[in-house]
Design brief:
CATH superfamily: Ribonuclease P/MRP, subunit p29
Structural class: alpha+beta
Strand content: 25-35%
Largest sheet: 6 strands, antiparallel
Shape: elongated
Radius of gyration: 14 Å
Number of strands: 6
CATH class: Mainly Beta
Number of domains: 1
CATH topology: SH3 type barrels
Helix content: 10-25%
Strand order of the largest sheet: 4-3-2-1-5-6
Number of helices: 2
Length: 98
């Protein structure tokens, strides 16, 4: 059973591959409205499987709606493994202060 990530923190700290995504803002107008499932992620791009095939979307200048949560491309502008480490460290530091 897949658990749906519905808050920004869990999306930023988790894996994006397999998540439903929609491009809601982009410097490339043709990319706005692209919907599908993330099938790959790199430092600067997401690869989205759509009804019309795979689309490579730049994270720079884009905003994504992932499971109903808006995420700015600049917030995920890391290699997936680095992004997960970064946000887990922040989360861990916050929890230790409590």
């Amino acid at each position: 059973m897949m658990i749906m990530k519905t808050d920004k923190a869990s999306l930023l700290m988790g894996e994006l591959i397999g998540e439903s995504v929609e491009v809601v803002k982009s410097t490339q107008r043709a990319q706005i409205g692209v919907r599908g499932v993330v099938i790959d992620e790199a430092l600067k791009t997401l690869v989205i499987e759509t009804k019309n095939g795979e689309k490579i979307i730049a994270k720079t200048g884009a905003e994504f709606k992932i499971n109903g949560v808006i995420i700015a491309g600049k917030d995920i502008m890391f290699r997936p493994e680095d992004r997960i480490k970064k946000y887990w460290r922040k989360f861990d530091a916050i929890m230790r202060r409590r």
